[in-house]
């Protein structure tokens, strides 16, 4: 078996051998990379590309993308050779296929980075949410009370109202705005 494998390898032209030299190791690394990604042991530590603000930009040239490029490049080349496309067309098709794979992988990582939340609490996220009065809120913005509201977790926040009647403890209210002092402006939800 090993003898026939070495005979097969020795009988192929150098052009095809180069593609096989690339295909074997990079396919193994690519499969290992995919398995690690699927089980959660991602190999991002090998990539040193990062933005100072922690965001992920569109990263085209990374180690993962390079491995994917060489894997797709080599297998496309082998397929081109076996389809009798000719050396020039095989190389062009291989390069284009590898670049497309790099672009797809970079786009997937970029798109996935947009799905994350930064975790920063923003008071404006309370607008149009409902809460419950915790401490009575005087009418006509004559004083500050408090409401409990679920905005990125349950919070007790200062609130005022422009309603003509005070809002007593237990009243369901809707946040209509936030003033410049980061105090919620609420209204009775009746």
Describe the fold and architecture.
There is one protein chain. By secondary structure, this protein is an alpha+beta fold. Helix content is about 45%, strand content about 15%. The chain contains 4 helices and 5 strands, in the order ααααβββββ. It has a 5-stranded mixed barrel. Strand 4 (about 170-180) and strand 5 form a beta hairpin. The longest helix is centred in the middle third of the chain and has 27 residues, at about 85-115. The radius of gyration is 30 Å and the shape is rod-shaped. The protein starts with a helix and ends with a strand.
The count of helical stretches stands at: 4
Give, in spatial order, the strands making up the sheet with the most strands: 1-2-3-5-4
Structural class: alpha+beta
- Report on the biggest sheet: 5 strands, mixed, barrel
Q: Number of DSSP strands?
A: 5
Order of helices and strands: HHHHEEEEE
Calculate the mean pLDDT score and round it.
85
Residue share in helices? Answer: 40-55%
Q: Return residue spans where pLDDT drops below 50 for at least 5 consecutive residues.
A: 44-55
């Amino acid at each position: 078996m090993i003898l026939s494998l070495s005979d097969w390898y020795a009988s192929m032209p150098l052009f095809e051998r180069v593609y096989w030299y690339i295909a074997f190791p990079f396919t193994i690394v690519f499969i290992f990379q995919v398995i690690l990604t699927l089980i959660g042991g991602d190999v991002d530590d090998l990539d040193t590309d990062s933005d100072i603000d922690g965001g992920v930009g569109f990263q085209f040239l990374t180690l993962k993308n390079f491995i994917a490029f060489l894997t797709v490049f080599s297998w496309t080349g082998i397929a081109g050779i076996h389809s009798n496309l000719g050396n020039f067309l095989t190389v062009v098709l291989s390069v284009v296929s590898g670049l497309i794979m790099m672009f797809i992988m970079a786009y997937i990582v970029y798109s996935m980075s947009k799905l994350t939340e930064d975790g920063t609490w923003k008071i404006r996220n309370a607008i149009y949410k409902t809460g419950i009065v915790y401490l009575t809120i005087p009418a006509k913005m004559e004083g500050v009370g408090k409401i409990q509201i679920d905005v990125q977790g349950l919070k007790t926040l200062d609130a005022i109202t422009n309603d003509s009647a005070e809002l007593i403890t237990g009243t369901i209210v809707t946040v209509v705005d936030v003033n410049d002092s980061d105090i919620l402006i609420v209204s009775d939800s009746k």
